[in-house]
């Protein structure tokens, strides 16, 4: 259904379909008007007659410039109807006065399709433009020449209505479909961009939550435990010293998180040294032997891999501190061929496989597994009540460039 002023969906396709060939249609219209106007002006007829007919024909050119072309540019249906009505008003008296004007139909018939685009409206416009020629044969000139002109006009009309009209209909339909497809693609791209931004923001929030959990939260927990232990002992100096050191390291963690989001224990030092420092600190906090070993040829890894290794060691040792009550702790890193493996073992209380420390919804182990998976690795936990716990983290070990 056509609304009063515009054709649905045509605005995106109709004007643009004709914009690229606008000069060609302008030229066809001008030539189709100027040729019969020249014939009329050279005829042996009274000057007023010739000037009137030529003036009617030449008035079609400004009508196209001021009404027809804006109708196409704006895809305004009412303007198109007004333009075709104006053409009929100018062309009808010109044809009735001089048969040479029928030549202008070659340029006027396409105007109906250009401004009305397709369908019954365009065909109706062509028939309205051809009707004056039939009226001339019926009421003015019934000679053989008039009949020939009528046949020529009928042939031209059928050609434009069937051949040109069908071609134009396909072009316009394809242009409209392309415009709709482009609109859908742009909408889809905008939706994908929005979803990607939301997913990126969610991933960033999860990553920051993991960073905060692995740095600030663990550090504060350690400080609280050391202060509580100091309060329960007659000589709290050792535990207070450990609490102060942990607080300083926690502050360094917070600064590193803000500045570069790299683990502060690395602080430019080799991975092995950072792990040895973390292991020594847990031994001091718990007052138990804590050993660190390196297997294989140590080598620098990509920063992302080193971050995952350090964070996994911190999380595993934080669980040892909170849940295991161990007599000893052992941390080891194994540099293999194309793989690096972190082991964190304790001989503490252990736990059933279906009941990890902190409950099934505990964030620590979940964050550890997510980190490893993002780096292309995996985490396994082997534990049983009374047998301690072994946490193993395996990661691809691409060397740094």
UniProtKB/TrEMBL annotation:
GO terms for molecular function: 4 iron, 4 sulfur cluster binding; ATP binding; metal ion binding; phosphorelay sensor kinase activity; protein dimerization activity. This is Oxygen sensor histidine kinase NreB. Member of the two-component regulatory system NreB/NreC involved in the control of dissimilatory nitrate/nitrite reduction in response to oxygen. NreB functions as a direct oxygen sensor histidine kinase which is autophosphorylated, in the absence of oxygen, probably at the conserved histidine residue, and transfers its phosphate group probably to a conserved aspartate residue of NreC. NreB/NreC activates the expression of the nitrate (narGHJI) and nitrite (nir) reductase operons, as well as the putative nitrate transporter gene narT. It comes from Sphaerisporangium rufum. InterPro entries: HATPase_C_sf, HATPase_dom, His_kinase_dom, Sensor_HK_TwoCompSys, Sig_transdc_His_kin-like_C, Sig_transdc_His_kin_sub3_dim/P, Sig_transdc_His_kinase_ChrS. The keyword Coiled coil applies. Residues 315-399 form the Histidine kinase domain. The keyword Transmembrane applies.
């Amino acid at each position: 259904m056509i609304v009063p002023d515009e054709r649905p969906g045509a605005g995106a396709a109709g004007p643009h379909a004709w914009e690229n060939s606008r000069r060609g249609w302008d030229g066809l219209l001008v030539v189709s008007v100027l040729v019969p106007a020249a014939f009329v002006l050279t005829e042996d007829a009274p000057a007023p007659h010739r000037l009137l007919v030529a003036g009617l024909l030449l008035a079609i050119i400004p009508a196209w410039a001021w009404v027809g072309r804006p109708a196409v540019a704006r895809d305004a249906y009412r303007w198109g109807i007004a333009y075709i009505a104006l053409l009929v008003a100018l062309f009808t008296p010109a044809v009735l006065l001089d048969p040479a004007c029928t030549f202008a139909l070659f340029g006027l018939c396409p105007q109906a399709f250009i401004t009305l685009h397709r369908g019954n409206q365009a065909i109706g416009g062509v028939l309205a433009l051809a009707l004056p020629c039939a009226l001339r044969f019926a009421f003015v000139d019934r000679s053989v020449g008039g009949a020939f002109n009528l046949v020529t006009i009928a042939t031209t009309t059928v050609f434009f209505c069937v051949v040109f009209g069908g071609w134009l209909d396909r072009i316009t339909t394809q242009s409209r479909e392309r415009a709709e497809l482009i609109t859908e693609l742009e909408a889809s791209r905008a939706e994908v961009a929005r979803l990607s931004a939301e997913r990126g923001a969610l991933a960033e929030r999860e990553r920051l939550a993991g960073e905060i959990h692995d740095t600030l939260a663990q550090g504060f927990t350690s400080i609280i435990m050391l202060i509580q232990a100091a309060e329960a002992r007659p000589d709290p100096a050792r535990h207070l010293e450990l609490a102060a050191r942990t607080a300083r390291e926690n502050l360094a963690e917070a600064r590193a998180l803000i500045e570069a989001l790299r683990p502060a224990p690395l602080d430019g030092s080799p991975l092995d040294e950072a792990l040895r420092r973390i292991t020594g600190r847990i031994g001091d906090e718990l007052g138990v032997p804590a050993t660190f070993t390196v297997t294989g040829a140590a080598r620098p890894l990509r920063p992302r891999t080193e971050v995952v290794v350090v964070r996994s060691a911190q999380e595993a040792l934080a669980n040892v501190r909170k849940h295991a009550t161990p007599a000893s702790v052992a941390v080891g890193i194994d540099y293999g061929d194309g793989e690096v493996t972190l082991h964190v073992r304790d001989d503490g209380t252990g736990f059933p496989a279906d009941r990890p420390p902190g409950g099934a919804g505990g964030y620590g182990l979940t964050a550890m597994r997510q980190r490893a998976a993002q780096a292309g690795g995996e985490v396994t936990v082997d534990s049983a009540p009374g047998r301690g716990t072994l946490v193993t983290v395996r990661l691809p070990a691409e060397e740094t460039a």
